[in-house]
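Weekly puzzle thread! Below is a chain. First person to post its structure in token form gets bragging rights.
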Amino acid sequence: MFTVIDETGTTTLDARPDGTGRLLAPSGRPLFGWEREPHGWCRGDACLPVHRAAGAETPDGVDVAAFAALVGKVAVVDEAERAVALADAPAGRPAGEEAPGFTLDGLSLSDLRGRKVALVFWASWCGCRYDLPAWAQRHAELEPHGLTVVSVAADRSAADARPWIEAAGDAHPALVDTEGAVAELYGVINVPTVVWIDEEGRIARPQDTQTATDLFRSMNGLDSQASREALRRWVLHGDAGVGPEHTRLRAATPGEQRARAHARLAAWLAREGRVEAARRHVAEAAALAPHDVAIRRGLMPLLGEDPFGDGYFALRAELEEAGVPLYRPLPTAADRV
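Winning reply:
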């Protein structure tokens, strides 16, 4: 049996390696929630026709990785650890698309339809953890004007995030994304990252590096007061401060999504105590998406490494030497003048 890890948790899969690098599941049995019907593979109202499924079906069984690709997933298989991790395959997003829906810790994004939402990604392994009380203050200030600040911790352990959430108070919805599901939907590659969503559930301002305090301004060069004023301008006057070229989420690349599957597998392995195996998948993820700090730094605590220690500064130096930005702020209204 193999363990399958996805954004919802784990399940088991009856499958066997065929000796050629493929993992085969028995023909005719459900796979990833899809069931074989005479006319193809179906899941709810969605069906994969027989002629399309033929590329994954063999006389000896169903090729698990090939089938995953057909149903919009990236699969990473570790035969030695008898595990399969899934992530969404990249998909282009048209301008003005609805913000990806999600349900986490009892909150659904759709519950907030009719209000503006500032989705704030942070983590206990980032200095932005000190900004959480300031984001709570922004929520309290602008909530009467139709804004809800939703903070999303990109921690792989809820216990790491919880003390910072409690210290900030319970004035705003504070979620913990231990499986990286929401971060994956919103293409988060570092924190802090903020996404603005309008009353109709559409992207108003995509992934943006914003701070709520100036504690680390000497390192990141970001002005928290400018961030606050931009937020107020959007909430009170409807000006998101960006042109049409910044009204869509940055789409993930195939490498980034495969890296996320490796990261998901690494996190599960680390929690299972298989740290050396987890390190292999972190290295694979880093090779595929070296710029993804949310993966590389975010997994350090699970590997027993200090995310504020030498490993982080080595990562920072590596990216700076390669010319890869750690922070990706969008233009402000002032920049457009």
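Puzzle host: Confirmed. Bonus trivia for everyone else. The chain has a mean pLDDT of 94.
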